[in-house]
Specification:
globular, 5-stranded mixed β-sheet, 4-stranded antiparallel β-sheet, Neuraminidase, single chain, 23 strands, Quino_amine_DH_bsu, signal, Glutaminyl-peptide cyclotransferase, 289 residues, QCT, 9% helix, glutaminyl-peptide cyclotransferase activity, mainly beta, 42% strand
C-alpha cells in the first residue's frame, strides 16, 4: 500500500521532461547509448536494491523496505552473501558509499545515517542530515547524496556536513528523481527512478552529458512488479568493470563503459578536485517507494 501510494504521487509529479520529450525520444544534442551487456551474474531476487558498490574487490549492496533492510557483502560471481547486517525496523534502507575503511548508509525518512566498518560491517557511528536519503556515492573528496530531487548534496566525509549543492539539468531543465549513484571516471552516474535510464552527469556544471539506455535489459526480464525498477550501479575500479542491477532482479549485469568515458580515473579525479562548486537548493519530494 505504501509503495503503491508513493508511485501514484510520484507519477503525478513533474519529471523535468514530458513523455514526448524524454531522452529516449529526443536527445540529438546528448548521446544516448544502449547498454551493451558483457556478462550476466546471479542476483538475489529478494533484494530490493537501493545501493550497490565495489570496494577492495568485494561487492556491497543495501536493500530497502521496512523490516527487510540490510547491508551485505556479496561474492559477485556466485551471488552468495558473505556478511550481512540489518538496518533496524522501521527504518527503510537506502544508498551506500565507501570512504577509506568506512561504509556510509542513509535511510529514506528521518534523516538517519549510519557508519559501518569495512569489510566486516560492524556499526561504528551515526550521522544526521535533512530531508530524505535516496542514493549515495563518493568522489575523491566527498560523499554525494541524492534525495529524489534534481539536487545532489556533497558532504564532508569527516563531519557529514553539506559543503556543496549541485543542480542536475538536461537541456536546461532540472532532472528529478535522481536515485542510486556511482562516481565513474570523473562522471556521476545516476539511476532515474521509474525510468530505464542512467544519467551521465558532469560534476562541475551538473549538466547531463549522456544517457545509458537500459530499456532492452528491462524488457528482457519481463518483470510484472511495477517496483522492480532499474536501481544499482557499481564500478569495479580494480578491473575497470561497470555493473548494474535492479530491485528484485535475478541478474547483475556487467555492461560496457559508454563511449567517451575516460578510463584515466586519477586524471578525472584531479579534474574534479579543481572544480568550483555549483550551488542550488530544492525541496525534496514527499513520497518514495
Amino acid at each position: 500500500m505504501i509503495r503503491a501510494l508513493a508511485l501514484a504521487l510520484a507519477c503525478a509529479a513533474p519529471l523535468a521532461f514530458t513523455a514526448a520529450e524524454t531522452p529516449l525520444h529526443a536527445a540529438a544534442d546528448t548521446p544516448i547509448e544502449p547498454a551493451k551487456v558483457l556478462a550476466i551474474l546471479p542476483h538475489d531476487t529478494s533484494s530490493f536494491t537501493e545501493g550497490l558498490l565495489f570496494h577492495d574487490g568485494a561487492l556491497y549492496e543495501s536493500t530497502g523496505e521496512a523490516g527487510t533492510s540490510f547491508i551485505r557483502r556479496i561474492d559477485p560471481k556466485t551471488g552468495h552473501i558473505l556478511a550481512s547486517t540489518e538496518i533496524a525496523p522501521p527504518l527503510f534502507g537506502e544508498g551506500i558509499a565507501a570512504w577509506k575503511k568506512r561504509l556510509f548508509s542513509v535511510t529514506w525518512h528521518g534523516g538517519r545515517g549510519f557508519i559501518w566498518s569495512l569489510p566486516d560491517l560492524r556499526a561504528t557511528g551515526k550521522f544526521a542530515y535533512t530531508g530524505e536519503g535516496w542514493g549515495m556515492t563518493s568522489d575523491a573528496r566527498h560523499l554525494i547524496l541524492s534525495d529524489g530531487t534534481a539536487t545532489l548534496r556533497f558532504l564532508d566525509p569527516d563531519t557529514q556536513t553539506v559543503v556543496r549543492r549541485l543542480k542536475v539539468t538536461w537541456r536546461g531543465r532540472p532532472v528529478q528523481r535522481l536515485n542510486e549513484l556511482e562516481f565513474v571516471n570523473g562522471e556521476i552516474l545516476a539511476n532515474i527512478w521509474m525510468r530505464p535510464l542512467i544519467a551521465r552527469i558532469a560534476p562541475v556544471s551538473g549538466k547531463v552529458i549522456g544517457w545509458i539506455d537500459l530499456s532492452a535489459i528491462v524488457a528482457s526480464l519481463d518483470l510484472h512488479d511495477i517496483d522492480s525498477v532499474a536501481n544499482g550501479i557499481a564500478w569495479d575500479r580494480r578491473h575497470h568493470r561497470l555493473y548494474i542491477t535492479g530491485k528484485n532482479w535475478p541478474h547483475l549485469y556487467q555492461i560496457a563503459l559508454p563511449q567517451g568515458m575516460t578510463e584515466d580515473q586519477s586524471s578525472a579525479d584531479r579534474m574534479h578536485d579543481r572544480a568550483s562548486p555549483a550551488v542550488s537548493a530544492e525541496s525534496p519530494p514527499t513520497s518514495r517507494p
